Amino acid sequence: MIPSTPDADAERFMAVALEEARQAAQRGEVPVGAVIVRHGEIIARAGNRKEEHRDPTAHAEVLAIREAAAACANWRLEDVELYVTLEPCVMCCGAIIAARIPRVYYACSDEKYGGISLFAMTADQRLNHQVDARRGLLEQRCRQLLEAFFSTRRAEHHPLPYIHTGP
Predict the structure, then answer these.
(1) Count of alpha carbons within 13 angstroms of residue 30, beta-carbon side
(2) Of residues 39, 43, 87, the one with CA closest to residue 65
(3) pTM above 0.85, yes or no
(4) Which CATH architecture has domain 6-148?
(5) Could you give the C-alpha distances from 152 to 24, 124, 146, 158, 159, in angstroms and in order?
(6) By the 8 A CB rule, do 139 and 105 touch?
(7) Domain coordinates of the chain in residue numbers?
């Protein structure tokens, strides 16, 4: 088991993931960013690139895992931590488990697609690897970015203002 990262360092790494998410939003991608840290150093960072690559697997976590595996010359990432601005989906949880990543910090829960909160994938004892998943680092800042992105998207696709007609 890897030692827990001190809070100040964990927040710093999540802030880098948040910057990756901001860059993804500027590219028109859903603003999710990920950072992988090994021995206190960032070895991989990525933002979503599904639209750019026209690839449904080009989530920030998967791209960062690929980069980290290349940097370590090993698909087993047993001595790293992953920081991501949104709870990993089922696909990303599968990649995290397959890569043997021991700890994930995520800022916001994903009530629609969350592989941790909806399916408890990272704690499933039937699997050959479990993950220490921790929620809440920079949650408000990450959630604000997501909400602003989707609010803008809805306004672009539905230019008429919503008119409340109920009581």
Answers:
(1) 13
(2) 43
(3) yes
(4) 3-Layer(aba) Sandwich (3.40)
(5) 14, 37, 10, 10, 10
(6) no
(7) 6-148
What order of strands is seen across the sheet that includes strand 132-135? 41-47, 33-38, 80-86, 103-108, 132-135
Whether 67 is catalytic is no
Write out pLDDT tens, residues 31-51: 999 999 999 999 999 999 999
Torsion of CA 148, 67, 62, 64, to 10 degrees: -30
In three-state secondary structure terms, 133 is strand
Average pLDDT along the chain, 167 residues, taken 10 residues at a time: 71 98 97 98 98 97 99 98 98 98 97 95 94 96 96 76 53
Q: Choosing from 61, 78, 139, 156, which is the catalytic residue?
A: 61
Cβ 116 vs Cβ 88: under 8 Å: yes
Q: What pLDDT, in 10s, does the model give residues 27-36?
A: 999 999 999 9
Q: 92 a known binding residue?
A: yes
Is 93 assigned to a binding site? no
Q: Other C-beta atoms within 10 Å of 147: how many?
A: 12
